[in-house]
């Protein structure tokens, strides 16, 4: 995580609860997410990682929807995935998302997808999001979001 000096905080920090640094999102592989071999298609892992990011924000009291209504967007600028094992139709999958580095206008998240029954690592990855305005111009992450993520 970046040091507080590299974060632009608009308002003073007033937090009484500890921020959630790691979040778990549970899902079941749907038939529509599988390929001809009955395995989860690789493109769905990015979608699962996005759900993990949104749930991590939500666990910290940040609504992606409300931010977008205020003109704050978080487009993905980097996405990396390393596939280890296949998930199959109807598998229960646990998607873990961790907040990594937080900078004034970007955030890095790490992700893991694991099969629930044996904790087998399916994939791990990293995503970086930039903070932009409605027109795609880079902007600082709002102070309220920073406070909710780092306390």
The geometry reads as: elongated
The chain-level mean pLDDT equals 89
Helical content, roughly?
10-25%
Straight-line N-to-C gap: 12 Å
Helix and strand element order? EHHEEEEH
CATH architecture: Roll
- Whole-angstrom Rg: 16 Å
CATH fold-level topology: Thiol Ester Dehydrase, Chain A
Q: What can you tell me about this protein's structure?
A:
The protein is built from 3 helices and 5 strands; from the N terminus they run βααββββα. With 151 residues, it is an alpha+beta fold. It has a single domain, classed as Hotdog Thioesterase (Thiol Ester Dehydrase, Chain A). It has a 5-stranded antiparallel β-sheet, covered by helices on one side. A hairpin with a 3-residue loop joins strand 3 and strand 4 (106-115). The longest helix is centred in the middle third of the chain and has 17 residues, at 43-59. Residues 1-15 have low confidence and may be disordered.
């Amino acid at each position: 995580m970046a040091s507080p000096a590299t974060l632009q905080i608009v308002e003073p920090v007033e937090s009484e609860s500890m921020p959630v640094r790691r979040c778990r999102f549970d899902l079941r592989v749907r038939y529509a997410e599988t390929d001809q071999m009955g395995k989860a298609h690789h493109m769905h892992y990015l979608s699962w990682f996005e759900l993990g990011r949104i749930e991590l924000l939500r666990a910290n009291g940040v609504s992606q929807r409300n931010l977008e209504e205020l003109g704050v967007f978080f487009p993905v600028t980097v996405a990396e995935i390393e596939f280890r094992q296949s998930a199959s139709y109807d598998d229960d999958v646990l998607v873990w998302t961790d907040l990594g580095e937080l900078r004034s206008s970007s955030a890095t998240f790490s992700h893991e997808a694991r099969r629930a029954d044996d904790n087998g690592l399916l994939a791990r990855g990293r995503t970086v999001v930039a903070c932009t305005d409605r027109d795609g111009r880079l902007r600082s992450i709002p102070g309220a979001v920073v406070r909710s993520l780092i306390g």
